[in-house]
Amino acid sequence: MLLGAHVSISGGLFQAPLRGSEIGCTAIQIFTKNQRQWQANPLSDQEIEKYFQSLTTSPVKTVIAHNSYLINLCSSDKNQLHKSRESFILEMQRAEALKISSLVFHPGAHKGTGEQAGLDLIAESINYVLGFCSDFNIRLLLETTAGQGTSLGYNFEQLKQIIEQVEQTEKIGVCLDTCHIFAAGYDIRTQSSYQATFEQFDRVIGLNYLTVIHLNDSKKQFGSRLDRHEQIGKGEIGIEAFRFLMNDPRLKNIPKILEIPGGMDCFKHDLDLLKNMIES
């Protein structure tokens, strides 16, 4: 099973597979640059080579990239929108250079212009960036959100609306975050509610679009619309939902990534916990 955590690239990109190896990852997620800055120095051949050497000698089989949180693909500010699009292209170029197949991003926040206008602009922005990188192998993954503030992507119908407007649909997918969907009002705590939620996802979007899963418990209650991650089994979702996920044959080959608080020790603890849930 492809299972792991979002690990730091502090000290160099090559450190990420090493950190993943230390805690037993077969998949990792990374930022390919400082996520608090718009720009980054180009990747050197030496950096790329060192990264691949580290990766090939590790048990990590899949690497997923995550976009900077600064990017807002539906900003009403023209300068901010342009900067977001250009930064998105930079993120795609870096991921492509590292042969990363999936780039996760938050759809965007409309900041008062309205949800429909925001959804349309997100799709327009995706078509814009794909137009510059049409020959890339990377797949762009819309992440489900909690719906905090004016953030879009908090229900499956919104993601479907965006996907339907993307011209290169083979280049688009979805990253489902358990904390986010729970906070947005999708229950997965019981067998029946878990099945109902994934049946709804399949009916509205299609499980063929589900490419990555973020495994996070939630500090906040069901339907709170607040994005606050917690360790597995220590939050409002509880342990059973993750047991369902780990043993769902439909999700067996989908990379599952922890984004919990607490650092490497907590990652190791929760990865071991999740592995022990797998029924033979």
Could you characterize the architecture of this molecule?
The chain is an alpha/beta fold. The chain has a single domain, classed as Divalent-metal-dependent TIM barrel enzymes (TIM Barrel), CATH 3.20.20. The chain contains nine helices and ten strands. It has helices spanning 15-22, 45-56, 78-97, 115-132, 156-165, 178-184, 191-204, 239-246, 264-277; strands at 3-6, 27-30, 62-66, 102-105, 139-143, 172-177, 210-215, 217-218, 229-230, 256-258. Helix 3 crosses helix 4 and helix 4 (115-132) crosses helix 5 (156-165). The longest helix has 20 residues, at 78-97. The model has no long low-confidence stretch (mean pLDDT 97).
CA-atom Rg in angstroms: 18 Å
- C-alpha geometry: globular
The first-level CATH class is given as Alpha Beta
CATH superfamily grouping: Divalent-metal-dependent TIM barrel enzymes
- Spans where pLDDT lies below 50 across 5 or more residues: none
Proper CATH architecture: Alpha-Beta Barrel
Into which percent range does the helicity of residues fall? 25-40%
Counting DSSP H or I runs of 4 or more residues, the number of helices is 9
Structural domain tally = 1
- The CA-CA distance between the termini, in Å, is 12 Å
Please trace the helix and strand order, writing H or E for each element: EHEHEHEHEHEHHEEEHEH
Do you know the CATH topology?
TIM Barrel
What is the tally of beta strands? 10
Major pleated sheet:
8 strands, parallel, barrel
Strand content: 5-15%
Strand order of the largest sheet: 1-2-3-4-5-6-7-10
Annotation keywords:
40% helix, two-stranded antiparallel ribbon, single chain, 10 strands, 280 residues, alpha/beta, TIM Barrel
